[in-house]
Amino acid sequence: MKSFSYLALLSAIAPCALAGSGVDGVDVLIDIIQPQNSYPQTSDKLIPIAKPAKAEYEYVIIGSGPGGAPLAANLAIAGHSVLLIDAGGDFGHLRERESPALANPSSERNEVSWGFFTHHYENEERALKDRKLTWLTPDGKFYSGQNAPEGSTVLGNFYPRYGGLGGCAEHNALVALLPSKNDWDTIKNVTGDASWDNTAMRKYLKKVEKVEYPLPEGTEGSHGHDGYLSMAINPAGIPAQDVKLMSVFAGAAKAFGVDNSALTAALNGAVSYAQENSIDYETGLLPLNLTTAMQDAMADMLVWDMNNDDPDRDTKKAFGRLPQHMDSKNFRRSTPRDYVYDTYAAKTANGKRKYKLDVALHTLATKVLFDTTGAKPKAVGVDYLFGESLYRADPRAIHTEDGGVPGTVKATKEVIVAGGAFNSPQILKLSGVGPKEELESFGIPVVLDLPGVGENLQDRLETSVNAEFPTNFTRILSCYYLAADGDPCWAQYVDADNTAAEKGTYASNGVVMGSFFTSSYSDDGEHDLWIGGFPALFNGFYPGYSSNAATVANKNWWSWLVLKAHTRNNAGTVKLASTNPRDTPVITFHNTYEGQTKEEADKDIGALREGMRMAVSFFENIPAIDGAASVFWPPKEVRDNDESLDEWIVEEAWGHHASCSNKIGADDDKMAVLDSKFRVRGTKGLRVVDASAFPRIPGIFPVLPIMMMAEKATEDILGAKNPGHCKPRKNKNKNKLY
Ligand SMILES: Cc1cc2nc3c(=O)[nH]c(=O)nc-3n(C[C@H](O)[C@H](O)[C@H](O)COP(=O)(O)OP(=O)(O)OC[C@H]3O[C@@H](n4cnc5c(N)ncnc54)[C@H](O)[C@@H]3O)c2cc1C
Ligand SMILES: *[C@@H]1O[C@H](CO)[C@@H](O)[C@H](O)[C@H]1NC(C)=O
Ligand SMILES: *[C@@H]1O[C@H](CO)[C@@H](O)[C@H](O)[C@H]1NC(C)=O
Ligand SMILES: *[C@@H]1O[C@H](CO)[C@@H](O)[C@H](O)[C@H]1NC(C)=O
Fold it and tell me: Under the GO molecular function aspect, what terms does this record hold (predicted)?
């Protein structure tokens, strides 16, 4: 096992110099392949690396994220032969993947990191103002900030994705929330397909989830109890042991208009008891048995189940607990990857494999193959390259020569593309399905002119408000985030004798609650703002962000994250950079004024400004128990007036929920890529089931909506009277393969 002392690790990662006015931006210089501590996976229940085992399957699915993975398992369980392809390996038992608190480090693990460099703006002058913009330095490192070494070239804005079994559900922050009613109803209205009605969609939540958190009495029927996805809530005792953390929570509640008197009374009571009994709560944790009153007070302040079925769920201002895709016993991440593993590993009574599900890993799909002899092109197979780290979003692949062993696999029923919002349009375009002019400019034979492929890309706008405190958060004091050996927080987490809050910091994603509210710029009254926070320094994505967010040495930071939902910008694009399937595409979001009318951009920015002002007031209302917060990001002079704060948002806002680049749309919409059953318009035997299918970016968090889509697609595929494919032809030689 290779390991680093944390001093060595810290010197390898330039510490953030953020406390100043921000002139240098995040100012981080880091190796392309980051120095990382590595521990063996905690279990050998892993799917082995293999190329497609057979020449032919009924269904071939490209991409094993929350779109593709559950669909593959469902179709196999329904009795079909299925091949699930993913470019990466199976790292489902990496420590970082398992513990909810290690989600950020998980998103930069070298084994699974796909770091795209995207463009918030096409206009370079605009782009250069971003304080976390990343450059390639002359000596081959990544520099992010405003002070790039002489001779560096701009790469863009780092965008973490997961290249491996399970997709981004393996490294996301686990927050699993329903989209809003209007998100589903929009699809119903646009397509006229009533099966998208928001009340009808709830049945897919029930299929997916295995709810493991206590529900308010009488609401059990509105949830699922035997799905593949465990859903749990952070044990309330975890934050309650930290006096400072509770004071931050109390401040947020007060600013948000939630009565915090019972909580502050309980907090003061615990502090006086600790003082009288010489319990050190300033550099240590309160004993769990002193936190009961605080836990009760918190329970009364929070909406107990944010995935409830109340008519006003999407509109009522709410301070809510966050359901997460993890289990409630070991507090390990639970994902579609586990569902695929269980389906893959299931055995019959006589020890044979129960389902016809093969999983091809280290397999980069390069092209969908079509039979073009019929009236419509029909997807009949997939070309791939077999090999490790082939895709150039993988930092290990950047400097490697072309390689990989080519192969082809046939699909007798359907090909389903589920590579995510960046890769699905790239795969379609490489296969000849996309805007004619773009394909022709690369010399790609046009199978179908579909102008909407790679258009309509959308993302959330996000910013953060960061502060430092004179003293530390005791909750994270002993945590190394695995950056050094002998991490006490890991030991506490995996100790089988510990239950619930006794498991400590790593049994929680660190986000105590979410604030859901509606800005004065909302068009429909549904929540368009969300604030959540954690004891770390997070101000957007850049290479090395995760090791700077939570460190061995710095324990006094807090970040409030502000997410703007229902953004109006749909001007983003995914365009080919080359015909080499190993290359990443050119991803341009055309943020704010570059992609929107002034009126619409003003509304999105205005909403985010309201969110940021709310986050600042969360800090300002902290009761005087354990030292005042000093907000440093954005700096005071930026926050002083609306104009400069708006400009900050234009320069800094980022996203990480990219969606909508192969939108579902109406029959008469030329830019619609998919029909309401996920079928690629104008083709047969081809669907797209992932984040790219949404016409409008859903909810505040997309992962649960994508999993619900996968259930709906399963039904569409299995239940369809005319599943969109012809009977297999007798004479296969007639098929013309491109
Ligand atoms: C840091 C971070 C935190 C997040 N936190 C949350 C959160 O708390 N809650 C939430 O709801 N959402 C969150 N998200 C977003 C959410 O996880 C994603 O939107 C979601 O996973 C997208 O699912 P998908 O199926 O569309 O694609 P992906 O999850 O991207 O999966 C695509 C898969 O396809 C594979 N693939 C792609 N191209 C090919 C190819 N050519 N050949 C073979 N395989 C290929 C990839 O390896 C990958 O496994 C977060 C995202 C990030 C990056
Ligand atoms: C959908 O259409 C109905 C009927 O016209 C309308 O009342 C409703 O507001 C629409 N919903 C959305 C989200 O567009
Ligand atoms: C809390 O538990 C400790 C033992 O862990 C015990 O010594 C103490 O008396 C308990 N305190 C209260 C208030 O129950
Ligand atoms: C906070 O924690 C760090 C790291 O353990 C330590 O060096 C520092 O002295 C602590 N600060 C205070 C005020 O206790």
Answer: flavin adenine dinucleotide binding; oxidoreductase activity, acting on CH-OH group of donors
